[in-house]
Design goal:
single chain; mainly alpha; 1% strand; 2 strands; 18 helices; globular
Length: 442
């Protein structure tokens, strides 16, 4: 099947960061194998995979604890629904009893102040700016109520799945409200003229970038958990400290991405604030053979699966955007995501070299769960019913069905061949991912 140029470019970019599969002979070794077709058409390669020093690293303003704000009655209602939905997802999935909360999350409009502490002038301004449907509906809710007014997005790697049952997410009291307005306003891309957008395009763009803001900012703890495991590999003598130094900045980069996505929301006339993602325990995989297998499981799930898909999806969105500040902003995010994915693919062979037969067998089985959860997560955040409004490509939007096709192509043409090349039976795992019930993620 022939893919359009943006998807060819996206797959070449994903292949480049993984350096594997048929496309890799073009993307990873242009000196000996030529230039990827998409690069010939665009005249530009995928970004360098070595991340620049993170200027946000160590910035106390990015500490998630500083993003806690008092919750009004209306916000508390939203948070209670968010908690109910999160708990249902944790314990097997949404049902008919969750439909009301899903509709509340989907259809609540910020028409007036949701915070009693906001003065009337500010409340009126925010009411005018935020007439779009409130973004805070999870991908699973989108599917349950067939909600398609917003382009849900899978950016930001979720917490890796685990076969072990874990308690529901720990919620702070009062619930966490992510408020990035002051940080985002300073980064607003100047070229967006919100008054030129029709209502549906503006609403979809705000919903998309606000969801990206929350997912990116909320994924920082995932990289913090992974880095802690990698440091343990150094302590065990399985890695050199210099090999993992790049990963030290990944969590800060994710928070920066959240702020940049919030900056787009602000530039579009929205507000860079929303309920934060539920906190989830980072899996230690006590059902595996030991710490090496646990680290490999998480490295595979986060970098080789989730972040490689993110590279492809963002590449396609960026390809179809016109030149300008918004495209430059997305390019910066994309470059970091390339670095995250490439880091995992580069480190994987070294850690696999330390794995015995039993550990590799455990990874082969875990891949079934990881692929199943990856598919669930991606499809839930790429609703097939969402059709991009006219002009949406200029604002980084995509049509759900098209993005789903790119997801499957990335898995089947890049990720599976890449893992097979490293000695893991990924094709069998992918094809048997739904062969029997699998434990839900934790």
């Amino acid at each position: 099947m022939s893919l359009r140029p943006s998807y060819e470019f996206a797959l070449a970019a994903a292949a480049r960061v993984s350096c594997c599969g048929a496309l890799a002979s073009l993307a990873c070794h242009p000196a000996t194998s030529g230039t990827p077709p998409a690069e010939i058409e665009t005249g530009e390669p995928a970004p360098a995979v070595v991340a620049e020093p993170d200027p946000y690293s160590g910035n106390t303003e990015l500490d998630p604890s500083t993003r806690v704000a008092p919750i009004s009655a209306q916000r508390l209602t939203l948070e209670n629904c968010q908690t109910q939905v999160s708990a249902a997802i944790e314990h097997g999935g949404l049902g008919a009893g969750d439909e009301s909360c899903c509709r509340t999350l989907a259809s609540n409009v910020m028409g007036g102040s949701t915070d009693e502490s906001v003065d009337p002038t500010t409340a009126q301004e925010r009411s005018t700016r935020d007439s779009e449907h409130w973004w805070s509906i999870t991908g699973e809710c989108c599917a349950l109520i067939q909600y398609s007014e917003a382009a849900c997005t899978p950016w930001g790697p979720p917490t890796p799945p685990s076969r072990l049952a874990q308690p529901a997410p720990v919620r702070s009291s009062p619930p966490i409200w992510l408020d990035l307005r002051s940080l985002a306003q300073a980064k607003r891309p100047a070229s967006i003229a919100e008054d030129t957008l029709d209502d549906r395009l503006r609403a979809a763009a705000i919903a998309t970038w606000r969801a990206r803001m929350v997912n990116e900012y909320g994924s920082a703890p995932v990289f913090e958990g992974l880095f802690a495991q990698l440091e343990r590999m150094v302590e065990l003598g399985l890695l050199d400290a210099a090999e993992i130094d790049r990963a030290r900045s990944f969590a800060g980069q994710e928070r920066r991405h959240g702020i940049l996505c919030g900056a787009v929301v602000e530039a579009l006339g929205g507000a860079a604030e929303a309920p934060a993602l539920a906190e989830r325990e980072f899996p230690q995989h006590g059902d595996g053979k030991g710490e090496l297998e646990a680290c490999l499981r998480n490295l595979l799930s986060i970098c080789c699966l989730s972040e490689t898909v993110a590279v492809a999806l963002i590449a396609a969105e960026r390809f179809e955007m016109p030149a300008g500040p918004l495209r430059e902003l997305l390019t910066g995010i994309w470059s970091d995501e390339c670095g995250h994915a490439n880091f995992g693919w580069r480190l994987l062979p070294e850690l696999l070299g330390e794995a015995d037969v039993e550990t590799r067998a455990g990874l082969a089985e875990y891949l079934r769960l990881a692929f199943a959860e990856l598919e669930t997560h991606e499809l839930a955040h790429l609703p097939a019913s969402f059709v991009m409004p006219p002009g949406g490509a200029a604002y980084g939007l995509c049509t759900g069905a098209d993005a789903r096709a790119l997801f499957y192509a990335t898995v089947e043409q890049v990720i599976v061949p890449g893992l097979e090349a490293r000695g893991l039976p990924a094709r069998r795992a992918w094809e048997s991912r739904r062969a029997e019930p699998l434990a839900h993620s934790a």
